[in-house]
Design a protein that fits this description.
alpha/beta, Spore Coat Polysaccharide Biosynthesis Protein SpsA, Chain A, eight-stranded mixed beta sheet, two-stranded antiparallel sheet, 22% strand, globular, binds 1-O-phosphono-alpha-D-glucopyranose
Length: 303
């Protein structure tokens, strides 16, 4: 209940809710995503969505809001208990596996599923969370963006900490190759940007010539609830979709918005090459198979 308190500025001090837009069709991975949600694709032995959820839980989030669609039921099952499996593992005395399966969702965390009945874009997906989020700041995590965090700092945890000071929206960014600007929301700054600072503008997937800076948005956001009223009126933008980026650009007219360049590596797992890179990175450090995998890759180096 403590988190429910609001400050004098009307903004609640903590972030306890996170929105995971997972209704997308994952066409870039067909046929793999015909019957399976792209967010359930594994990187070694964990599905992408679980990595994102773990990052949120680590940042202190307790309410996990999934914006989902009819073909995404596997996500609900993944975060539910599986009685038959648990009994089998217990009987077979497979304690470690049982622990893993039972701890996918820790006590105190809860899942809320909201159906996005039309795929009208990321901004529309976030708007679907309006009633569940209410009048408090919240996080957004795009599971496609797998963030291999730096040992000591974690992207969303850092953003949550910084929110306590600035009480304004914060967007995760990374340095990009300007030639790739059409894959990202790109932010612009008035002053020199060093790791954390206010943005001046943001454009969704600009041509390289129109890119405002070499900093692209990665799928980590902390947003104030003011974004919802804007999302309700924002017109379809890039690809005729309701773009979260366009709503953030409008939000800037009434509130500051900050960018945070996190430490760590982001893998674009919505892209085949990015996904393969993630598998190699996570495979190499996996406690069970890492050493053998490294040996195997070394043997392959003449390919
Ligand atoms: C979305 C956002 C974009 C952001 C990107 C990060 O695009 O619209 O601003 O840079 O996620 O992954 P998408 O990749 O869903 O097309």
């Amino acid at each position: 209940m403590k988190n429910k308190k609001t400050t004098t500025s009307g903004i609640a001090p903590g972030i306890r809710k996170a929105v995971f837009p997972v209704a997308g069709l994952g066409t870039r991975f067909l046929p793999a995503t015909k019957a399976n949600p792209k967010e359930m694709m594994p990187v070694v032995d964990k599905p992408l969505i679980q990595y994102a959820v773990e990052e949120a839980l680590r940042a202190g989030i307790t309410d996990l809001i999934f914006i989902t669609s009819s073909s995404k039921r596997a996500i609900e099952d993944h975060f539910d208990s599986h009685f038959e499996l648990e009994v089998k593992l217990e009987t077979a005395k497979k304690k470690e596996l049982l622990r893993i399966v039972k701890n996918i969702l820790p006590k105190g965390a809860s899942c809320i599923y909201v159906r996005q009945t039309e795929t009208l874009g990321l901004g529309h997906a976030i708007l679907c969370a309006k009633n569940v989020v209410g009048n408090e700041p919240f996080a957004v995590l795009l599971a496609d963006d797998l963030i291999d965090n730096h040992e000591e700092t974690h992207c969303l945890s850092d953003m949550v900490q910084r929110f306590k000071t600035v009480k304004s929206s914060i967007i995760g960014v990374e340095k990009i190759n300007i030639a790739d600007s059409e894959k990202y929301g790109v932010v612009g700054f008035k002053d020199k940007f060093l790791t954390f600072g206010p943005i001046e503008n943001i454009i969704e997937k600009p041509k390289p010539k129109a890119a405002l800076s070499p900093f692209g948005v990665v799928g980590r956001y902390i947003l104030t609830p003011a974004i919802f009223n804007i999302l309700e009126i924002v017109k379809p933008g890039k690809n005729q979709e309701i773009q979260l980026t366009d709503a953030i650009s409008k939000l800037l007219k009434s509130e500051p918005v900050y960018a945070y360049e996190f430490l760590g590596t982001r893998y674009d797992c919505g892209d085949k090459l990015g996904y393969l890179k993630a598998i190699i990175a996570y495979g190499l450090k996996h406690p069970e198979v890492g050493t053998a995998f490294r040996k195997h890759l070394k043997n392959l180096r003449d390919l």
